[in-house]
């Protein structure tokens, strides 16, 4: 089994190469379609055609697009992500400083969504078609239809402005002060988690209803095990296959949500970097960010596929 | 009602001023101020970033010093320069520098440092985007250790005032630090200012601590200043209301009105010089016809626009200078709202008018676009909005790919640099492609005259010509705002839209 898992992971990692190539080539092409480039953006209100041409030459932007891309790719292979046109900051160093912020935001948001979604999903399954089930379902659809940017504003108004219990801005690095860091992350995390839990709860509910009909659950009941023990110890694992898929999908969506939430709360993460880089046409920085987002996306998917094997013996033994 | 509100506000400002003068000398030391600014700060090296926007200038105001400063009356005062003289033709200016000033890295601030900063920015091999702002300067040289001489290509009557705001070309970097840091200097700037940069996470806030060797004894009052980029205006407003941030740069009228009603906040406002404007591209029909442009102006009820959209906080502009410029022109022939005249002019023109109006794709740009679109459609002009992002907007303005666009004349101590660039025939920044021999002559005259009255007369004549030809429609006079927690004192006037907390302090409760 060990070598098969290794082969599986190796194969998936190999896919990563064409994926990164396609995604970054597309990003390059899309960027080139936008009017104006980083030279225009840097010159601002003085971006006269002659000055733009001079700066483009200086930055190497007058080369054909495929050569710019090839140059960038050549650098990437040797681990050189290039230097931001706009700030002169090495892209890799900018990403290294911002990645922990986004990773923490996403991890906490997903944990928060699980902390809400799993118990509520199980509650609904156990109390199927009762008032509780309907109430949670209504709440789930209400939250699902709430965009994170709206929720962010509403939460800020109540929790920061009106009651003053949480800070509305000002990221504190985790290493500097863990508690202050968690406080500064609370509103962004809530804004994401509160819209991410409903799909988890819904999927878990329906799978668990199926599981609870199985003979082994009846058997457990007959043995007199407590309902909570049955739910958590016996029923949760076999019901969580679809849940894991949704978590994987959710994390992908969270990258998009992180962009919005980071801009609103001024968090110095990858999302904010992508927005700034796009608006200022700093495509070297954008490309570097895109590589890491792509990596993250693919690695999450590999992890999800591996979890299937852990959760479902049929996948593990290749006899589905 | 409006009058009452304004007079109350004015009385409040006067009272605040009185309290300030009574407690002068009682400035409290210590504490920290967090400034919320709109844009992410890309850095400080002129060669790398080319220009400071409002965010970078708020940081530059505490990190660096300029040669001069404007006091609250708008009079030029010494800062790094102690005195100055000029040649009779105003083309050579000599500044005496302050003795004993050191950069934050301990190296001395002197005439060689000043000259070296300019040499670096002007050197054509360095391709500094900032060089445009220095195009009037031929060279800056050190006459001796403590004397610098500016040799200008054109006369500049107001040079000392123009050197006062902390723009990219007005602040002084330590030449030693530039040499030592090289490419890294952009994110590790060293100035002579009251605060030095101690930490800056990529994309995050900049933390400044008091410069213990600052040349002004007893300054600064604060121990720490934090400059925090916050792109979202709602988030910025929420942060200052919640007290997470102490002062914010802001431009949303609704929030200014809310903040005025909030006991825990102070609104500071500065009626500046300059205007925001609608810009026509005169190269293509139908906007090459002055009747169409005049019709579009007659269709605009700017009084109603400023009252409703801006709660009367800003006033409609009748010339490009504004009340903050000190230039009061009598009767500059500004057109006013008159839809009947607009229809008559369009009828004279005879052909149906269809236009595309390029606006910035953010809520404010689009809202203003929709209001003007409604004005114009009401007199029978078909207008399509064309929302684009800021970079696209600037790019298309310069390559002439627009019919109606927009531009700003920013707050500077003198109209010459911008008026000459925006309206002189053939100037690369003249995005309207406007050409009027009389305006050209008047621009030269204003540039080459030191006599204040003659300059005002020339600029008022220019405004009259522009109000007739209408390459641009002046919309509102610039008016800058900041919103702060109530106890914050000593914030300077918002010259050039800089939120300057270098001399701020906290009142004791």
Task: Label this structure with key terms.
heterodimer, A: 320 residues, mainly alpha, 14 helices, globular, B: 509 residues, alpha+beta, eight-stranded mixed beta sheet, four-stranded antiparallel beta sheet, disordered N terminus
Structural description of this entry:
- The complex is a heterodimer of chains A (320) and B (509).
- With 320 residues, chain A is mainly α.
- Chain A has helices spanning 2-33, 38-43, 49-59, 65-77, 91-126, 131-144, 148-162, 178-212, 215-222, 227-235, 241-265, 270-279, 283-311, 313-316.
- In chain A, helix 1 (2-33) runs antiparallel to helix 13 (283-311), helix 5 crosses helix 11 (241-265) and helix 11 runs antiparallel to helix 13.
- The model of chain A has no long low-confidence stretch (mean pLDDT 85).
- Chain B has 509 residues and is of the alpha+beta class.
- In chain B, 33% of the residues lie in helices and 22% in strands.
- Chain B has helices at residues 2-22, 46-49, 54-63, 111-122, 159-162, 175-181, 233-242, 253-260, 290-298, 302-309, 339-349, 363-378, 390-398, 416-423, 437-447, 452-469; strands at 32-37, 68-70, 76-78, 81-86, 92-97, 137-144, 147-152, 195-200, 206-210, 224-229, 247-250, 265-280, 354-360, 382-388, 404-408, 472-485, 488-489, 505-506.
- Chain B has an eight-stranded mixed sheet, with helices on both faces. Chain B has a four-stranded antiparallel sheet with strand order 4-5-7-6.
- The longest helix of chain B is centred in the N-terminal third of the chain and has 21 residues, at 2-22.
- The radius of gyration of chain B is 23 Å and the shape is globular.
- The model of chain B is unreliable at 1-24 (pLDDT under 50).
- At the A-B interface, helix 2, helix 3, helix 5, helix 7 and helix 11 of A face helix 7 and helix 13 of B.
Radius of gyration of chain A: 24 Å
Q: Give unreliable regions of chain A as ranges.
A: none
Taken from the alpha-carbon principal axes, the silhouette of chain B is globular
Q: Tell me the total number of β-strands of chain B.
A: 18
Q: Order the strands across the largest sheet of chain B as they lie in space.
A: 8-9-10-1-11-16-12-15
| Number of helical elements of chain A | 14
The low-confidence parts of chain B are 1-24
**From the helix content, strand content and strand pairing of chain A, which structural class follows?**
mainly alpha
User: Would you tell me the overall average pLDDT of chain A?
Assistant: 85
Net shape of chain A: globular
**Beta-strand level of the residues of chain A, as a percent range?**
under 5%
Largest sheet of chain B: 8 strands, mixed
- Give the quaternary arrangement of the chains: heterodimer
Helix percent band of chain B: 25-40%
Number of strands of chain A: 0
Distance between the termini of chain B: 33 Å
